[in-house]
């Protein structure tokens, strides 16, 4: 990717003899977001290492989407600082956005374009040369099993196809960090396996994936690094082994961390089922 190489060259030209530590993919300090009198994100700190497959997990309403929206420059924080690859997201938004890909929750696509047209349009918006867009789009459509549907309008795509074309659009400019909000939700096992293969290949080349999910088995099998969020706070972050600790599974560690471990609902819904 020329962007990365050019900026690395520029860095070296300024300080030729100073070795630089690789900055984390994402650094978040003291991040807050309130909606009215509800605090969605309560002063979180995060350091997400580069080159990892990272899961952001938490129960419904934990603040994952709000956090990812602020980290990717889509929602302005009330307070706090966010860096991606050492660059401030809110001070240097154009540069940062050229280096990231985003598959947001409730993905809105241009419904009246075909999948192929959507990629061509995205490529032009990203400033890629036409022939690069064509060859990358061909490969992505092929690998994501969308080649047969490339001329179909996006409005006629299934949920899984929409996730896959959204993923293709997010990857087209070869970002350094890819953010995915619930990428596997509503996706059948075959499409999930395809998406998974593409993401594994991508992180295998040194790029970073950050994705949110509720599905612990998936996170456990995919991620090497995990952050657990609940009620707007980070309850744990670290390698999968560190976060799992002594628990038998990530699921059990998660339930303990979010305070749902010992919950007993046996008395509730005692009217449900049985004789009428
Ligand atoms: N635009 C908004 N206006 C008001 N409240 C909001 C808004 N966006 C989020 N919230 C609230 O902030 C809290 C965190 O929501 P968020 O969507 O970030 O959680 P989440 O962890 O992504 O949840 P889920 O897993 O259910 O998608 C919730 O209580 C939600 O109702």
Structure, briefly:
The protein contains ten helices and ten strands. With 276 residues, the chain is an alpha/beta fold. β7, α7 (189-204) and β8 (208-213) form a beta-alpha-beta unit.
Keywords:
six-stranded mixed β-sheet; AAA+_ATPase; alpha/beta
Oligomer: single chain
Largest sheet: 6 strands, mixed
Global structural class: alpha/beta
What is the distance, rounded to the nearest whole angstrom, between the alpha carbons of the first and last residues?
66 Å
Ions, cofactors and other ligands present here are: adenosine-5'-triphosphate
Residue share in β-strands? 15-25%
Share of residues in helices: 25-40%
The radius of gyration computed from the alpha-carbon positions, rounded to a whole number of angstroms, is 20 Å
Overall pLDDT score = 88
Q: Report the count of strand segments.
A: 10
Membrane topology: Peripheral membrane protein
Subcellular location: Cell membrane
Pfam families: ABC_tran
Domain ABC transporter: 26-256
Explain this structure to me?
The longest helix is centred in the C-terminal third of the chain and has 16 residues. The protein has 10 helices and 10 strands. Helix 4 crosses helix 5. The N terminus is likely disordered. The chain is an alpha/beta fold and 276 residues long. The protein has a 6-stranded mixed sheet, with helices on both faces. The site of adenosine-5'-triphosphate has 11 residues, from strand 2 and helix 2.
List the helices and strands and how they pair.
Blueprint: H1 2-14, E1 26-35, E2 38-48, E3 53-57, H2 64-71, E4 79-84, E5 87-88, H3 93-99, E6 100-103, H4 115-125, H5 130-143, H6 159-171, E7 177-181, H7 189-204, E8 208-213, H8 216-222, E9 225-230, E10 233-239, H9 240-244, H10 250-257
Parallel strand pairs: 3-8, 3-9, 6-7, 7-8
Antiparallel strand pairs: 1-2, 1-4, 4-5, 9-10
The structure holds adenosine-5'-triphosphate (ATP).
Adenosine-5'-triphosphate is lined by residues 35, 38, 40, 58, 60-66.
């Amino acid at each position: 990717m020329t962007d990365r190489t050019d900026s690395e060259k520029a860095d070296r030209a300024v300080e030729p003899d100073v070795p630089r530590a690789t900055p984390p993919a994402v650094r978040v300090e003291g991040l807050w977001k309130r909606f009215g009198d509800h605090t969605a994100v309560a002063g979180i700190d995060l350091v997400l290492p580069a080159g990892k497959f990272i899961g952001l997990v938490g129960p419904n309403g934990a603040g994952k989407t709000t956090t990812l929206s602020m980290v990717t420059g889509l929602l302005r924080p009330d307070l706090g600082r966010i860096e991606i690859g050492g660059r401030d997201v809110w001070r240097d938004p154009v540069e940062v956005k050229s280096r990231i890909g985003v598959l947001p929750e409730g993905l809105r696509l241009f419904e009246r374009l075909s999948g192929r047209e959507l990629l061509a349009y995205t490529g032009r918006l990203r400033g890629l040369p036409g022939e690069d867009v064509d060859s990358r789009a061909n490969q992505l459509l092929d690998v994501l099993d969308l080649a047969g549907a490339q001329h179909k309008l996006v409005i006629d795509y299934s949920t899984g196809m929409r996730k896959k074309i959204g993923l293709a659009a997010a990857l087209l400019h070869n970002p350094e960090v890819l953010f995915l909000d619930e990428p596997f939700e509503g996706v059948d096992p075959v499409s999930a396996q395809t998406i998974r293969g593409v993401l594994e290949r991508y992180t295998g080349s040194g790029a970073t994936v950050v994705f949110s999910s509720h599905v612990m088995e998936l996170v456990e099998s995919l991620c090497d690094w995990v952050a657990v969020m609940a009620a707007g706070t980070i309850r744990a972050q670290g390698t999968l082994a560190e976060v799992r600790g002594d628990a038998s599974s990530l699921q059990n560690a998660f339930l303990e961390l979010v305070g749902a471990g010992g919950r007993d609902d046996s008395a509730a819904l005692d009217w449900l089922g049985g004789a009428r």
